[in-house]
Amino acid sequence: MAHDKTAASETGATPASHEAQASVSTSRRRFLTGSAAAVGAGAAAAVGFPSIAVAQTTTLRFQSTWPNQDIFHEFAADYVRIVNEMSGGRLRLNLLPAGAVVGALQLQDAVISGALDGGHGVTAYWYGKHKAFSLFGTPPPFGWDAHQFLAWYWTGGGKELYAELLEMLELPLVGYQTGPMPTQALGWFKEPIASADDLRGLKYRTVGLAADLMNEFGAAVTIMGGGDIVPAMDRGLLDGAEFNNPSSDRLLGFPDVSKTWMLRSYHQDCEAFEVMFNKRRHDELPEEFQAILQYAAKAASSEMYWKAMERYPRDLNAMREEQGVRTYITPDSVLEAQLSAWDAVIERESSNEFFKKVVDHQRDYCERVVGFHLEHTTPKEPAYVHFYGKSPTDTSTLL
Fold first, then answer.
1. CB-CB contact of 185 with 202 (8 Å)
2. Is residue 355 part of a domain?
3. Does a structural domain hold residue 353?
4. DSSP-assigned letters across all residues of 228-269
5. Could you tell me if residue 340 is inside a domain?
6. Which residue segment(s) compose the domain that 121 sits in?
7. Is residue 292 assigned to a domain?
């Protein structure tokens, strides 16, 4: 903004003696000389001391692969909140839902191109680029749970193998696995699945290596994002489908198109989310911010699981009691057939050198870690029956 300068007038001066005028002139010279000296001293001080920088906010565009109201989008929001709070607002992720910039299955390409700075999803969505991607999100059921899977990723060598995969495919990304997911249900169907033969010819939705697994049963598998599944079932384009958990499935509207939910399955026995960033954008950040992005992924894992354990049972019971959903325990014969199908998938895909490297690494890890866990951990179902007088499966139908 411009400011006007007004000149002072010296008209109407009072006559004074010569000595007085000389004294005034001398005082004026001393004042001006002193002012100049003060200005000079101030300038010297400014040069001698470092300037105080004003904190600026670095903002990243961050999209999830989940619909806005899905609990998975809440999990993405929890990660974003943790990052923003840990950075004191100096690093800020702006969260967008699936479809805001790109569809769920296009997220990785959008982050690579820079259309987005980062995103929240699952590696199984990218298995079309390399089957090994699914091993970092939905690995084979080697007896581990999702917590042990994340332990493999963070401390057992998985993180290094993940980075090797990105480098091998020349994908300019940085990513972290986060958020342990419990075993997923076999899915929603028109009628209960009583045997493996019931899956033959079934039009079925899943993702990642689970698609290869279900193909072993003769199912016709379609891969699609979460928001598209229920409309496809409603139009008869799918006979059965799985997404993930009671809270997500209820919100997506599965009870509106099916009343039969088959619990337990080895197709996705454990799973984790992926947080990814454009590598150039990530590497431009100060090391402090890079550390926050990584440690926030670890912190969000705990928050996610705690929230899931509170919400999933409530939504499961609500679907049974309020929406007429009947749950069925997948028969042991189907589970055993799934394990045999995994043998076939692993053997076939291990013709790829890197896939074999990762799956062998996982198998060796599980032999040691899961073996320890099974040997040292007491079985939980007998204790549950003792204290509650019922089996956890009493609310579901055994086929």
1. no
2. no
3. no
4. GHHHHHHTTS-SEE--S-HHHHHHHTHHHH-SEEEE--STTS
5. no
6. 60-179+271-308
7. yes
How many CA atoms does the CB half-sphere of 192 hold within 13 Å?
14
pLDDT tens for each residue of the chain, 399 residues long: 433 333 333 333 333 333 434 443 444 444 334 444 443 434 333 344 343 344 689 999 999 999 999 999 999 999 999 999 999 999 999 999 999 999 999 999 999 999 999 999 999 999 999 999 999 999 999 999 999 999 999 999 999 999 999 999 999 999 999 999 999 999 999 999 999 999 999 999 999 999 999 999 999 999 998 889 999 999 999 999 999 999 999 999 999 999 999 999 999 999 999 999 999 999 999 999 999 999 999 999 999 999 999 999 999 999 999 999 999 999 999 999 999 999 999 999 999 999 999 999 999 999 999 999 999 999 999 999 999 999 999 999 999
Q: What total number of domains does the chain contain? A: 1
Residue 89: CATH number of its domain: 3.40.190.170
Contact 213, 338 (CB under 8 A): yes
Tell me how far apart the alpha carbons of residues 314 and 193 are, in angstroms, rounded to a whole number: 25
